[in-house]
Amino acid sequence: MLARLAQVVGAGQVTDDPDVLAGRSVDHTGRYSGRATALVRPGTADEVAAVLRVCRESGTHVTVQGGRTSLVAGTVPEHDDVLLSTERLNNVGAVDATERRVSAGAGATLAAVQQAAASAGLLFGVDLTARDTATVGGMASTNAGGLHTVHYGNMGEQILGLEVALPDGTLLHRHTAVRADNTGYDLPALFVGAEGTLGVITSVDLRLRPSPAYRATAVCGFTDLDALIGVARGFRDLDGIAALELIDARVTALTGERLGVPAPVAGDWLLLVELTGDTDQTDRLAARLEQVPGLSEPAVGVDAATSGRLWRVREAVAEVLGAFGPPLKFDVALPLAAVARFAAEAAVLVGRHAPDALPVLFGHIGEGNLHLNVLRCPADAEPRLYAAMMELIADCGGNVSSEHGVGSRKRAYLSMSRGPGDIAAMRVVKAAFDPTGYLNAAVLFD
């Protein structure tokens, strides 16, 4: 099989080196690991399709890897898999400034797409703190959201077309010059969020947006989480809202201590708010904040430099999480009315199962897409805590996954968010595209 793969992509793009495979078989957090037979790096969509044909014919499982920033062990192999990396599919095409679109290979990083858009005076609507390593193919596969979801929506809302290598080794091309393509099935929507279980996305056509002329940013401190949520609910549907980010003061204490990035205001919970528009938004933001009863003086960024310093408070969170070893991560979607209850009861669960651990909560509060990270959580406490946390999420009316996908870590809990009929229908779709089940077999389904 390795010889056949080498014929497809070239001998230099296939390896079975144990050290290379060991490094590629560990997840982003370093908490979960698997095993692989080989790593293959195709350089074109045709090569991806040919690699899939070889692996399917030889009965070999394939795990697809992009930037490997998955936080649910979505790129960790379990079956002595061939690791199919999209890293060489990293081209970013010329920006069409008139139609506000750009084509990019699945292995192109988010940062590369953002830079291309900015060079044309445009922006790409999805932004993540992992922008330098996250790839647009992986982001499409998980329907990633990010820091500006409240304004631009998730990854699926940015995709105008795509190319996919199907499990049978054929290529599906859905590229169109029109914006409203309502002919036949909406196949791109089927592959976005499928986590690589139905095919390997090889390229995407992405929607770009006008870059706003003005930004106004503020960070506000709250003692009561319900009060913060009430304010976020009021901002959520405001014209020009660009970001609504919740930050736990327990984590800003760490960023202050270790990175020199302290909270700019006092409070147990922080809310970062940003408004954008064609005119100066500073007065509008200030007037809105003045309507919040009992709110202490917020920190306001009125220019790029001061706004950047406030955003640094949010960006630093990702940098400090690994300071105490691999964190235990929970990526959840919750109704806003249940967020305060979840935060309180999650802290109780952590205290019960891992008394020395530290829970910190942050995320995109406008959409209820939140990230609970448990620092200093010992490995032997994880199974019981994970199960208990999943039950709490379901009891709060939330989904066990919001924007990171189900991966392999949450597949046992899929039934908490999807009914039997829903799961059965998804299995039918999977079987139609991949009847032997060799592609991303560890992901989504038990």
Automatic annotation (TrEMBL):
Record family assignment: Belongs to the FAD-binding oxidoreductase/transferase type 4 family.
Lineage: Bacteria, Bacillati, Actinomycetota, Actinomycetes, Mycobacteriales
Pfam families recorded: FAD-oxidase_C, FAD_binding_4
Domain FAD-binding PCMH-type: start-end pairs: 32-211
Annotated keywords: FAD, Flavoprotein, Oxidoreductase
Domain of life (superkingdom): Bacteria
Protein name in the entry: FAD-binding oxidoreductase
InterPro entries xref list: FAD-bd_oxidored_4_C, FAD-bd_PCMH, FAD-bd_PCMH-like_sf, FAD-bd_PCMH_sub1, FAD-bd_PCMH_sub2, FAD-linked_Oxase-like_C, FAD-oxidored/transferase_4, Oxid_FAD_bind_N
SUPFAM superfamilies: FAD-binding/transporter-associated domain-like, FAD-linked oxidases, C-terminal domain
Cofactor: FAD
